[in-house]
Hints:
By secondary structure, this protein is of the alpha+beta class. Helices cover 43% and strands 27% of the residues.
Amino acid sequence: MIEARVQQAGGTPREETALERAQRIEREIVVEEARKNFLHSDQGVKAANIEVAVLFDELERLSDEISAGSKELAFKKERNVAGFVLSTSGFSLLVAWSLQYANTLRDSCLLTQLWKGFFIPISGRAVRITSREAKLLKEMKYDLDRKITGEFVWRRLNGERRFFPTAQLAQECMKILLDQVRDMRLRGLETYFS
């Protein structure tokens, strides 16, 4: 693609030499090793815990903003260090951080689940659903990653490989919940007018 633009501009594309390619690959390997070492360290765990808190803060801010500007939507929020639950209109969004080890992010993940029903907190970190017709509608898992620029992003584990900065992941979570509420209300209107 770059070569085509260079040719369109009247230039001749320059090919990477074997030495340049070897140097580039070596730099990429060093950067990748540094990234992995960071994520599997005490500093990586601290960074992940901070990003989780930022995510929960952003979800809380978004829900407050939506509630303040809406006559129809009010959110019930439950939060602790490892979990955040938003409930509205018969649906709940659960965002749970599962840290497996104190000194590495190995096997840790951020779980997001959309449920039909409401959650209530029980005994510290756990939550349970209270609705008899409770049903898991959607589930996604993420792990923390670090870009070359140093920015932390959440990498989606199941499905397509996507990366979300923390604020964008909060937006995505809210969209999933709000889309479900919209769909349910539209189905209710269709039934009402049928």
